Amino acid sequence: MGIGEWISENWINIVTTVSGIGGLWAAVFALRKDAKARKEEAKAQRVGNLLTITANHRELWKLPFLYPTLARVIDSTADVAEQPLTPAEEFFMSMAISHTSSTYEALKDELVTHQEGLRRDVKSFYSLPVPNAVWTKTKLLQNQDFAAFIDSSLK
What angle do CA 1, 18, 9 make, to 5 degrees? Predict the structure, then answer.
């Protein structure tokens, strides 16, 4: 039996095999293209999440500059023993802690791009007298891993 005769007897198998292989290659190509699109979509979502966190950060941090009653929050010389925390300071700090916690959770779950200076930022803020006093008073109300992150940043 020659090659021509074999092809004429098996042409349907050849066509089926070639089309199956072509279909597999098309599926592989489509999956790779879909994976790349999903990766780019996830990256865009992380950037969008970071922009949202940044907007919330800006809204929160303009308050001490707009309201003089919150000036001690960012005052490194504030004496909380001499002048106890005010309800406004405690409320502001609860929002700041919540914001920090949300940011931490988003970073932990890789929902935003990595922020290299976060520990330094946390240390510089939570080391201030008013933030430190509120943090010490309320950290037991936080998730353990978040509280451990703040405490380790303060060291």
Answer: 25
Half-sphere exposure of 92 (CA within 13 A, CB side): 26
Domain that holds residue 53: 41-154
* 30 is a domain residue: no
Mean pLDDT by 10 residues, the chain (155 residues): 74 77 79 78 87 93 94 97 97 96 92 86 97 97 96 95
Tally of domains within the chain: 1
Helices (H) and strands (E) in the chain, counts: 6, 0
Q: Quick check: pTM over 0.90? A: no
**Whole-angstrom distance, CA of residue 14 vs CA of residue 22:** 12
